[in-house]
Design goal:
Blueprint: E1 2-3, E2 7-8, H1 39-42, E3 57-58, E4 61-62, E5 93-96, E6 102-105, E7 110-111, E8 117-118, E9 124-128, E10 132-136, H2 138-142, E11 145-154, E12 158-164, E13 173-179, E14 182-189, E15 192-201, E16 208-215, E17 218-223, E18 230-233, E19 245-248, H3 255-258, E20 268-276, E21 291-294, E22 297-298
Antiparallel strand pairs: 1-2, 3-4, 5-6, 7-8, 9-20, 9-22, 10-19, 10-21, 11-16, 11-20, 12-13, 12-19, 13-14, 14-15, 16-17, 17-18
Length: 300
């Protein structure tokens, strides 16, 4: 018998035994009645197994313990939930993983495997595709001219920035992200959407600085302080109206659905030194008083 792919435990049969002849039923996790097993064993074991059993195989064949196969019978077998008795702290939520482990989804301002570490200051943040930062900036909502700037690095496509309502097919919005390695900017006013992408790829894993300026119905985008890489102009002669919410690194839910199928996932990588509108200082991603979010952690 091998434990944890490392420890071997075993005994030898008598020299005369050359084969194993078993005609009885195979039990796992317990027996219906202890009278069916050897009295020497039943005298030492008084109860059935309490716990979890996964990946049960016989001769490399995987058996589903909750199968409806008539060859398999049992009782009191429940679905395994790895989040039961989890160690997540500070009101973090728990998500079950495919390998039967779990992960803790930290609220804004907390980090660590179990969200045990409280953060005070963080201007350089890491996102894993499931995280997001959400803030409402009054000066941005009331202004006819907006400017945003941030540094980013990634090797994956994903949503970098979203300003506007969610799940609103006709709501005004500005979105920025990596799509096929290029910077993609989308601008919607009064139900009409325009978009543009760079020719250059920016999914090289290096830091790049992006500045976004909205001036009326036009958006200008500078990357690495070069001449405007993109100019997205809208023909609509109406005001840009939104609820003032800004999302960085992702959205609070299914990004594909909430973004109207524009982005497959949230940001995977780092976002640093974010400025919004005329704010002089960088956003503190750890500040729980001005924003909310999930899985926003320090970038190494």
């Amino acid at each position: 018998m091998k434990l944890n792919d490392d420890i071997y435990v075993g005994v030898r049969s008598s020299p005369l035994a050359v084969s194993l002849d078993v005609n009885s039923n195979f039990y796992i996790g317990g027996v219906p009645d202890f009278s069916v097993i050897n009295t020497d064993i039943s005298s030492e074991i008084k109860s059935n197994f309490v716990g979890c059993i996964t990946h049960f195989k016989v001769n490399d064949k995987l058996y589903m313990l909750n199968s409806s196969n008539t060859d398999i019978v049992g009782r009191n077998i429940g679905e395994y939930n790895s989040c039961i008795n989890n160690n997540c702290l500070n009101n973090a939520s728990c998500s079950a993983e495919a390998d039967y482990s779990y992960r803790c989804n930290c609220l804004l301002g907390f980090s660590g495997v179990f969200c045990e570490e409280e953060l005070k200051t963080m201007t350089v943040a890491s996102f894993d595709g499931s995280g997001y930062w959400m803030g409402q900036i009054e000066t941005v909502r009331a202004s006819l001219h907006n400017s945003f700037a941030l540094s980013f690095r990634s090797t994956n496509d994903g949503l970098l920035f979203w300003y506007g309502r969610l799940q609103d097919d006709y709501g005004d919005m500005i979105s920025v992200g990596l799509y096929n390695g290029t910077i993609n900017v989308r601008y919607m006013i009064d139900g009409k959407e325009v978009s543009s992408s760079t020719e250059q790829l920016f999914n090289d894993g290096a830091y790049h600085r992006i500045h976004i300026l909205r001036n009326g119905n036009a958006i200008f985008v500078w990357i690495n302080l070069n001449k405007p890489d993109l100019v997205v102009s809208h023909s609509a002669q109406v005001s840009f109206v939104t609820d003032g919410y800004i999302y960085i690194g992702g959205l609070p839910g299914d990004v594909y659905a909430l973004s109207g199928h524009r982005f497959m996932q949230g940001w995977i990588g780092c976002i640093a030194n974010v400025t919004l509108s005329n704010e002089a200082s960088f956003i503190n991603f750890a500040d729980k008083e001005i924003a909310s979010g999930k899985n926003v952690k320090p970038c190494s």
